[in-house]
Design a protein that fits this description.
The chain is mainly beta and 167 residues long. The protein folds into two domains: 32 residues, no CATH class; 85 residues, Sandwich (Immunoglobulin-like). Helix content is 8%, strand content 30%. The chain contains one helix and eight strands, in the order αββββββββ. It has a four-stranded mixed beta sheet with strand order 1-6-5-4, with no helix packed on it. A four-stranded antiparallel beta sheet has the order 2-3-8-7, with no helix packed on it. β7 and β8 form a beta hairpin. The protein is elongated, with a radius of gyration of 34 Å.
């Protein structure tokens, strides 16, 4: 009983600055006298109403770096071969490749949520982007890089430039 008296005494002494103010009984409000404000974006209760339809943008896929590939140097071209293990096989629509004189970017969208990417920046020598080709088979992508000059390539990319940063 004494705790109740101390609580009430503290509320009476300090008013709404009292530590115990939240425990004070509140006067009852008659809801029939309440003013209801309605309009767009104001929630007043009742049946659910659709406020807004959000158009989903496509979810960006997780990018998986391609680290396993092989390459072969021929007189007029260089072949880059990437093997894949996919359930349904690869199609041309799943593959995008961009060629530049000293750079190649291969993207393979294996699902809505996963994209495999190979970036070869600073190729050892220049290639002719307009003459480069992509060939897609069920489990393999072959890039044919047309050399600008018929020279021997001892390395596919300049030392230390495999393209591990994804910028």
């Amino acid at each position: 009983m004494e705790a109740e008296n101390a609580l009430r005494a503290n509320i009476k002494q300090k008013g709404e600055n009292s530590y115990y103010y939240a425990h004070q009984p509140r006067p009852q409000v008659n809801p029939s006298n309440a003013i209801v404000v309605e309009g767009d974006g104001i929630i007043t209760g009742g049946d659910p109403r659709l406020a807004h339809i959000h158009q989903h943008s496509s979810i960006a896929p997780t990018v998986v770096p391609i680290r396993n590939y092989s390459w072969a140097d021929e007189t007029e071209k260089v072949l880059v071969i990437v093997n894949f293990v996919t359930g349904g096989g690869l199609t041309q629509e799943m593959v995008d490749c961009q060629f530049e004189p000293k750079r190649v970017t291969l993207s393979v969208r294996v699902s809505e949520l996963e994209e495999h990417r190979l970036i070869l920046r600073r190729l050892s020598h220049n290639v002719l982007p307009e003459a480069c080709r992509v060939r897609v088979k069920a489990n393999r992508v072959t890039l044919t890089l047309k050399k600008e000059a018929s020279s021997k390539w001892f390395s596919l990319v300049e030392a230390g430039k495999l393209g591990d940063d994804w910028s």
